[in-house]
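Q: I have 172 residues here and want to know how they pack in 3D. Can you give me a structure?
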Amino acid sequence: MCWLAIFISAALLVGCTNRDLTDLEAYVADVRARPPSGISPPPQPAEVETYFYVTDDRRNPFIPDTNPEEGAGMAADSGIRPDFNRRKEKLEACPLDSLRMVGTLERDGRTWALVKAGDGTIYRVTTGNHMGRNYGRIVEIAEDRIKLVELIRSVSGYQEHETAVSLVVEGG
């Protein structure tokens, strides 16, 4: 019985190697007979006209003008600064436009807003919490929006900027 199995296996192996490969050989010969297609050269770069900035008596645009007597100076530093020693909250890692207000909760006269982050996690926030990457502090929560004051960096320091996150009704 064992010899019969070995004989059948050997016969199958011999049958696999004894194929008619003339069509494959003809295709390979046809491909090799084709003329080689060359690689086209890369396009020549366009020539760019050189521009020289002549300063004359102009001020350097990359250095803020701090002399208020010239009239073209920047506003004085407002003194507003973010608290860099404060521990950042989770929603401060998210851009403000990726956050969605999905509802509110109220208990014992205190109002919380429900905010959905880009990963689908819902957070509960209240007045005084922070969210967004521009040090946004929540100053008011209404049923349809969260009002924030952000600190936007400018040449003269930080400036306060009011913004809001509106309620988004999901589903049908």
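Q: Anything worth noting?
A: The helical segments are 2-17, 22-33. Residues 98 and 130 are 15 Å apart (CA to CA).
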